[in-house]
Please model this.
Amino acid sequence: MINIFLSASVPLPNRDRRFFDTADVLAIREAVKALVEVVLPIGRITCGGHPAITPLLSLFVREAELCQDKVTIFQSALFKGNMPVELADFINVRVIPAVNTDLDASLKLMRKEMVTSQHFEAAVVIGGMEGVLEEVDLFSHHNPSAVVLPLASTGAAAAIIYSKGCYDKELARELTFASLFRRKFQLFIE
Model:
């Protein structure tokens, strides 16, 4: 069984424009859909409970009639009362205690719990903003042997991470995400 860490978000226009201006929202949506369809029959996905990504995961898991117990979503208790309603669609939701009312400290704790929760074969980076940059740094530190796949074709933080590393060129241009994931994850499932 393959364990994939998903770091993703849909950039917001009222935040850092370098993320929003380069994001391809349709590509972000299609990449999340493909990840669900390719990974869940053979493994698990772990991610944070981003308000735009959680509904997509819920929708695509239902559409593909896949097991909801193969998705683990981490959320900070700081967002209690403001969490995506779709969290109720998942069995494995881990709410991490808030650090007082400190947003940065609470997210840092949640992210550390998330990336150290198990052994991951790979991280898939889709779209994203500042939090995705932080997650990927933290993930790489705690999972040095895992593969990181920043889908630069989705833009935003994924494109920034791609531009700063040495990654396969197909991550920059590929839009047939299901085929890409099958090729990239093949070595883990043989």
